[in-house]
Design brief:
- The protein has 288 residues and is an alpha/beta fold.
- It is built from eleven helices and ten strands.
- 38% of the residues are buried.
- Bound molecules: adenosine-5'-triphosphate and magnesium ion.
- The site of adenosine-5'-triphosphate (ATP) has 14 residues, from β2 and α1.
- Magnesium ion (MG) binds next to α1.
């Protein structure tokens, strides 16, 4: 399932004094089996882009297509919504039922699944995010911690098995273990030939995970390409309002000095291992 945004513009509150153009002429394709990162500073249009991919918003101009067919009218929008699963930036907006179980089963039940099958989907999704279904099922979602709410919101979307998973700043409330699990989930989605779009303003979380990265600045697409070429382009990152993160800077400085270390996941420990490994041959087994 391929979603294509062609020359899309989006304005909030058009024709009013509060009109705000949030996206300008954005063209982007999301293909099956692909993880696309979207990077951009605060207010650059990332969430708006996800709302268009989800069919919550329709473009002011330009076109969205799903497998080559224009998304128009209620039928087109329904198809797009069924193909995509959005985990919003604010997890509490997802959670509305009296118990976690009801919340998790709501989506799968709406897909027409029976009670048992929906519960099985919910259980698997909770396991994949690292929560116990049995311990949580009777809890009120709003009594959960922020991180737990995020995980339950993610599990609720995963239980629907969307062809394209859309994540808005998903890692911001997660600890190291939560981030590791999320990585596995996203890699699993790619392996199954589904797609994921990861929106973040923290680009270290995209290294080694995104196949392609799109960079937004003030609603415009500054660039989109293979993740390494984007994440290691200091000029581009500066234009998008970023400084280079220290680890990436270290990697680039080492490269300038002739030591080209694979970036991997961007994790400090992993990078340290890689550097030590590369130096091992030179300084007698420094590597682990
Ligand atoms: N509901 C709304 N009504 C009016 N303007 C909005 C609305 N939502 C967003 N905007 C404006 O559209 C622009 C893009 O907002 P968006 O939420 O897409 O940014 P973002 O990149 O997701 O930011 P953040 O990193 O803070 O989440 C901003 O200038 C914002 O003020
Ligand atoms: Mg946002």
């Amino acid at each position: 399932m391929t979603i294509y945004l062609h020359n899309v513009r989006y304005s909030y509150m058009p024709g009013t004094p509060l009109e705000r153009e949030a996206l300008r002429e954005v063209t982007l394709e999301v293909r099956p089996g692909e993880v696309v990162g979207v990077l951009g500073s605060v207010g650059s249009g990332k969430t708006t882009l996800l709302r268009l991919l989800k069919g919550i918003l329709e473009p002011t101009s330009g076109e969205v297509t799903l497998d080559g067919e224009a998304v128009r009218g209620p039928r087109g929008v329904t198809k797009l919504r069924a193909a995509t699963g959005l985990v919003m930036q604010e997890p509490e907006l997802h959670l509305f039922a009296a118990t976690v179980e009801e919340d998790l089963c709501f989506g799968p039940r709406n897909l027409g699944l029976g009670r048992e099958e929906a519960r099985q989907r919910a259980r698997e999704a909770m396991e994949s995010v690292g929560l116990s279904f049995d311990e949580m099922r009777s809890r009120n979602p709003l009594s959960l911690s922020m991180g737990e709410q995020r995980k339950v919101a993610l599990a609720g979307v995963l239980a629907m098995r969307p062809a394209c998973l859309l994540l808005d700043e998903m890692t911001s409330g997660l600890d190291g273990e939560g981030k590791r699990r999320l990585r596995l989930i996203i890699e699993g989605i790619r392996d199954e030939g589904r797609a994921a779009v990861l929106v973040t303003h923290d680009f270290e979380e995209l290294g080694g995970l995104a196949d392609r990265v799109a960079v937004l600045a003030e609603g415009r697409l500054l660039a989109c390409g293979p993740s390494r070429s984007i994440l290691e382009d200091p000029e581009l990152l500066r234009k998008a309002g970023y400084g280079l993160p220290p680890l990436l800077e270290l990697r680039l400085l080492l490269k300038e000095r002739g030591l080209d270390i694979e970036w991997g996941t961007g994790d400090a420990e992993e990078l340290a291992d890689r550097i030590a490994g590369a130096l091992g041959g030179l300084c007698g087994g420094a590597g682990r």
